Amino acid sequence: MSDTSDTSDFDSETESERIGLEHGAGGEATRKLVAETLASGFGDPEDAIVGLTGMDDGAVIPVGEENLVLTTDSHVIDPPFFPGGDIGRLAVSGTVNDLAVMGATDVRALTSAMVIEANYPVAKLERIADSMAATCEEANAAVVTGDTKVMGNGEIDGIVINTAGVGVAPHVTPDSAVEPNDVILLTDSIGEHGISLLAEREGIEFGSDLASDVKPLNDLLARALEVGGKNIKTMKDATRMGLAGALNEIAEKSGVGIEIREERVPVTSDVKGAGEMLGLDPFQIANEGVAVLAVAPKSAENVLDELREHPKGENAAAIGKGIDDHHGRVVLDTGIGSRYLREPASEPAPRIC
């Protein structure tokens, strides 16, 4: 029997073999860590439509005649209360949106697990719980089971919340389904969550109403699916690594290029100004209420019109298309030239979700 208490194998570790903040940022470093270390011993179920190796927003497993979608997400945001939301609203919205962009806009159940630091104010915990309940009502969802743990002072920073969810997808919309000429739609303006959160964290006043966009999108995306059906190929929420990260991941998994017209991407003047002051690119900053859709050309206009008729999609725009060139990459047309739109090597603002 091997001695599991023997730590000699760990003594020779180099700094390059240790976990850094970039491994939790949701980009290439995260995907490499998951593929080579965390998931290397797991295989996908034989009947999985989307499994762990797909590294999508959720897994899709057929159960009878239905496609069951399962996802989970942990939330470590700092600060836990911010303009436009809090960690409770984020925890529910994040998991609801991960289900919705896989096609499961009908959320059947959520779970919630909290790890709380000792001496955490009960009033703050009540505020978080109330926010979660209100967001569940907005998303027509319910937390049906959960877990609570408490750690000592200094052993955790305030509170961490994990949520998981299950839903049913009549039509699955994975990252890997985009084809040349598919139209790329964006449901809202970008950068508001990350930039407003960083400003709050650093105590910077911009003299504007800049606030997080955090919200559940399942009602909006359900409307889009009603109109577009199977002509909606892919949906993805542009969270960590922002729009740049979402588009690059879609292009890589689909094996196509994506061409984006910069002038068509909605960015508010407040976000542009704050981004310039903070040295942040709105394309690379996290959103928590924005989704990307790839739609067959024949349905794109109808889907866009439907998005714009919904209060959560008033700023929706057609921003580009899939192309049979620059495979696996995103080309940004700036109006005076073109360049590759790359995802950041690490998260520009850590603990943003």
TrEMBL record:
GO annotation terms (biological process): protein maturation
Annotated spans, Disordered: 1-26
Residues annotated as domain PurM-like C-terminal: 179-332
Domain PurM-like N-terminal: 56-169
TM segment ranges: none
Record's compositionally biased regions (Acidic residues): 1-14
Family: Belongs to the HypE family.
UniProt-recorded name of the protein: Hydrogenase expression/formation protein HypE
